[in-house]
Replication factor C subunit 4
Amino acid sequence: MASSSKGKQPAVPATAKHADAENYEMPWVEKYRPLLLSDIVGNSETVERLKVIAEDGNMPHIIISGMPGIGKTTSIHCLAHALLGDAYREGVLELNASDERGIDVVRNKIKSFAQRKVTLPAGRHKIVILDEADSMTAGAQQALRRTMEIYSNTTRFALACNMSNKIIEPIQSRCAILRYSKLRDAEVLKRLQEICEAENVQFNDEGLAALIFTAEGDMRQAINNLQSTWSGFGFVSQDNVFKICDQPHPIVIRGMIKSCQKSEIDEALARIHSLWEQGYAAVDIVTTIFRVVKTMDELPEYTRLEFIRVSWKGDAANVQEIGWTHMRILEGVGTIVQLGAMIARLCRMSLPPDALKL
Ligand SMILES: Nc1ncnc2c1ncn2[C@@H]1O[C@H](COP(=O)(O)OP(=O)(O)OP(=O)(O)O)[C@@H](O)[C@H]1O
Ligand SMILES: [Mg+2]
């Protein structure tokens, strides 16, 4: 399969080295990196558009943007393979953030690639893949503008980035922008189950749920954590996953929120102190609290909203709960005092209205 030797060099696509011997001890994220557009999980509408482009052959310049680990680089590679097949090796120039991509490279390397004559399947174009394009300097992006236009009859550009606003406007206006969203829990779950089956992983449902909880829609992280848990403990259970991910255990947080709901401040403070003493960072604690509260069905919706919100009461005393504490921590005030104050406010909110009157 890997020896389709058309022309002088064997055209082995970089990502298609899937002979079994080579899979040995490959990280699972690479081993299970989709090779075809149809294998990409989630963002189905956008992936459908890519499939149409692959069939049609006339690829526009594209930018794919979105969070890490949701399949942007993979999609671009799949698209390029679908378009160029065996001609991938000659027809694609890939540059990512680890390559030099200053103005000189744009002027020389990209331009000379665009000028080069290559035999491609009929109606196809050479493709320049600029991965992690948001790390290119504005100067280098400026240098791309005209190149993209002048050579557009033979060369098309595919950019991937986390933040599309770091791509200068003129380039955005030359491209079709595809936005990938975080993967849904069910989508990550399905993929994890497939991998567990293929690798014969022992797991229970809570273990997979914990992987999904910690990954927050990032497939790469979910797969990596799955592999680490499996190779570290030999069983994927909730506890093992949280040991690997080293985040505060949602069950502890859940208990703490319940104490807040009952206004049991001593109990709630004791729990947050114990998390603090175990060495968890304030930002990890507060983000886990947010995610637990968000999905805690036992809390009435009203209470959940009150706990999460950042709200203002009149112009003086403001009630600032989880969101506000998060903001302060990000500003650098990640102390136990902030966390304790948040707990105290959550407890106070759960008191009957007249309990605080003197
Ligand atoms: N949508 C997806 N379907 C299947 N596997 C996926 C998907 N997204 C990510 N993965 C897995 O995660 C790995 C990393 O994906 P990829 O390199 O495409 O991420 P990315 O979106 O480019 O992230 P980054 O912004 O960090 O570059 C892949 O090798 C694959 O195993
Ligand atoms: Mg990438």
Remarks:
- The chain has 18 helices and five strands.
- The mean pLDDT is 86.
- Residues 72-73, 131, 160 surround magnesium ion (ligand 2) (CB under 6 Å).
